[in-house]
Design a protein that fits this description.
two-stranded antiparallel ribbon, about 260 residues, globular, alpha/beta
Length: about 260
């Protein structure tokens, strides 16, 4: 796997019409310039994927916001990685905090999804992160919430997955307290989290695997702070939520990284 800077736009459950989705995508792709050092991924709602892929230019690739852990069968309402692959997707977001919270996805479920995504020759984007920024025990001593939660999520999600497959994945550190709050993580804390994730990967696998893994940051990313994560915290990219729904702002994010 190459180590291009990855810029992912997660549209979540937006917009509400196909016309709006096509307009947004058109404004983004129309203003983009291709750069050999970056890769831009758009993750729209499932219902818009086929329409947007049909009109896509080669400057953008597509990802899905979730998937099921089986390729086909009697699973009403679910969408399989194989279906996404055949549709033209290249990436799948797995384990986003909103799905953990609202859909009660567990680390065990996420592990099964990752395995099926890899089996379907797609690239998983594994999201993980802690809920509380500062946690203290009964004695008033700080607990390292990030390391406790992230290590557990990482170890369970990667159970039974070989080191060679880790190199096909992207790990997105998204502290829940920063998602959609406007309270972005500092570059220093993001760097510490990235280093901790690599350290945990080295324990699970080996140092070489840890060094080659692609780790990105997500959580209130915008054009003003994006380079704090990519250039100061040395993350391998960003996962952009709300700002990806504003074509001008998303283009500014891409331009800041490319300059």
């Amino acid at each position: 796997m190459d180590k291009k800077i990855l810029i992912i736009g997660n549209w979540k459950c937006n917009p509400v019409t196909l016309k709006e989705a096509k307009n947004l995508f058109g404004m983004i792709s129309g203003r983009m310039t291709k750069n050999k050092d970056t890769e831009v991924v758009i993750c729209p709602p499932f219902v818009y994927l086929s329409s947007l892929i049909d009109v896509s230019q080669d400057k953008v690739v597509f990802g899905a916001q979730d998937c099921f852990w089986e390729q086909k069968g009697a699973f009403t309402g679910e969408i399989s990685p194989l279906e996404l692959k055949n549709l033209g997707c290249q990436y799948v977001i797995v384990g986003h905090s909103e799905r953990r919270k609202y859909l009660k996805e567990t680390d065990e479920m996420i592990n099964k999804e990752i395995k099926m995504v890899l089996k379907s020759r797609l690239k998983p984007i594994l999201c993980l992160g802690e809920e509380a920024r500062d946690t203290f025990n009964s004695d008033g001593k700080p607990l390292n919430e990030m390391s406790l939660i992230v290590a557990e999520q990482l170890e369970k999600a990667l159970l039974g997955i070989s080191a060679s497959r880790i190199r096909e994945m992207t790990i997105a550190y998204e502290p829940i307290w920063a998602i959609g709050t406007g309270s972005a993580c500092s570059s220093d804390d993001a760097m510490k989290a990235g280093l901790f994730i690599r350290k945990t990967l080295a324990k699970i696998y080996d140092r070489t695997t840890a060094e080659k893994a692609r780790i990105i940051y997500g959580g209130s990313v915008n054009s003003k702070n994006v380079n704090e994560y990519v250039k100061e915290a040395r993350m391998d990219g960003v996962l952009v939520g709300g700002a990806s729904l504003n074509a001008s702002e998303f283009i500014r994010i891409i331009e800041k990284i490319n300059n």
